[in-house]
Amino acid sequence: MTVIALDLRGVGRSSRPNEPYTLDTLVEDIKDLLEYLEVQEQIHLCGFSNGGFIVQKFALKYPSLVKTIMFFESGPYVPPLTYEQFLKFLETSVKTATPEKLIQIMLPNMFSLSYRKKLKRDKELFELYKNDMGLVAQLKDPPRYQDYINHWMTIKDFDTRELLHEITQPTLILLAFQNEKERDEIKEFEPILRKIPNSTIELLEGIGHGLIIEAPEIVNNLMWNFLKEHLTM
């Protein structure tokens, strides 16, 4: 199996054109990359957070290219209030923050309290993550404030609620929650996600949004067991 890890435009080492992005643009970036790499077989497509929205759109637009999909900490739509709240957060907290300060700002939004305590106790672990924490904030060649805005614009009108039944590929969905409030939020859209006919939804209790860092063993095992089931289909 070959793993392709893509830095989307505006992220990591990819170029950062200062223009409004759309989900269709990001979907086409993936399509173009597959063509450039001459990938002929169907792919197992995985996305986290905003990447989960891209995964859904890609599977709907290019179903013949996709064998399975996996998306974590993503839903079928973005409530307008959530969208506006995050824009305000970017404006008030992210716009003028240094990369080091941004890490401190983002940690409570990404990880559970118990995991943040672990990072505080384990200085070596924190330094390891801090120096390779593109998920939270990049210290090397950090994104500009406008890069955050350009990416956030892509999901302003995202809504697949009426299209999920068209996703026929085997689908693994991971959703994390730390408390009853977050569990209630999941309850609102979990039944909608189950409209994907061949979907498996796993709920991870006591874990923050950044589940792929906070609980890598759990996530990796769920992914690998899912992939093994469908590798030879």
Structure explained in plain terms:
- The chain is of the alpha/beta class and 233 residues long.
- The chain has one domain: Rossmann fold (3-Layer(aba) Sandwich), CATH 3.40.50.1820.
- The chain is 48% helix and 12% strand.
- It is built from 10 helices and 4 strands; from the N terminus they run αβαβαααααβαβαα.
- It has helices spanning 23-36, 50-61, 80-94, 99-110, 113-121, 123-130, 145-152, 180-193, 211-214, 216-230; strands at residues 43-48, 66-72, 171-177, 199-205.
- It has a 4-stranded parallel sheet, with helices on both faces.
- Helix 1 crosses helix 2 (50-61) and helix 3 runs antiparallel to helix 7.
- The longest helix is centred in the middle third of the chain and has 15 residues, at 80-94.
- The protein is globular and about 45 Å long.
- 27% of the residues are buried.
- The mean pLDDT is 90.
For this entry, give a set of tags.
233 residues, alpha/beta, Rossmann fold, 10 helices, 48% helix, globular
Break the fold down into its secondary structure elements and pairings.
Layout: H1 23-36, E1 43-48, H2 50-61, E2 66-72, H3 80-94, H4 99-110, H5 113-121, H6 123-130, H7 145-152, E3 171-177, H8 180-193, E4 199-205, H9 211-214, H10 216-230
Parallel strand pairs: 1-2, 2-3, 3-4
Helix pairs in contact: 1-2, 3-7
Structural class: alpha/beta
Total number of helices: 10
Shape: globular
Q: What fold name stands as the CATH topology?
A: Rossmann fold
Main sheet makeup: 4 strands, parallel
Instruction: Write the CATH homologous superfamily.
Output: Alpha/Beta hydrolase fold, catalytic domain
Helix fraction?
A: 40-55%
The overall number of domains is 1
**Which H/E pattern describes the elements?**
HEHEHHHHHEHEHH
